[in-house]
């Protein structure tokens, strides 16, 4: 298995996790920065979902061999 195949699979998995559950990503990455925060903002959730989609697209391009 080549490096681009492994990278493509990992990016797709990370994209699914990131895009599918922005609240969990917020909890891991941002919650510790504030005492009073009780959830991600709508903008954070939107950007996280878009980023997850970008990871999935790049992972698919790597698997297809379009990007190396």
Give the arrangement of secondary structure elements.
Layout: H1 3-20, H2 22-29, H3 42-64
Mean pLDDT: 91
Count of runs of 4 or more consecutive helical residues: 3
Large-scale geometry: elongated
Order of helices and strands: HHH
The radius of gyration is 14 Å
Helix content: over 70%
Low confidence ranges: none
Main sheet makeup: none
Please provide the count of β strands: 0
What is the terminal separation in angstroms?
14 Å
Work out the strand percent: under 5%
Q: What class, by secondary structure content?
A: mainly alpha
Describe the structure.
This protein has three helices and no strands. Helix content is 72%, strand content 0%. The chain has helices at 3-20, 22-29, 42-64. With 68 residues, the chain is mainly alpha-helical. Helix 1 runs antiparallel to helix 3 (42-64) and helix 2 (22-29) packs across helix 3 (42-64). The longest helix has 23 residues, at 42-64.
């Amino acid at each position: 298995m080549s490096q681009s195949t492994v990278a493509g699979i990992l990016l797709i998995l990370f994209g699914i996790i990131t895009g599918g559950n922005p609240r969990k990503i917020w909890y891991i990455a941002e919650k510790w920065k504030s005492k009073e925060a009780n959830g991600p903002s709508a903008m954070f959730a939107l950007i996280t979902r878009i980023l997850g989609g970008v990871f999935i697209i790049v992972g698919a391009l790597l698997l297809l061999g379009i990007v190396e």
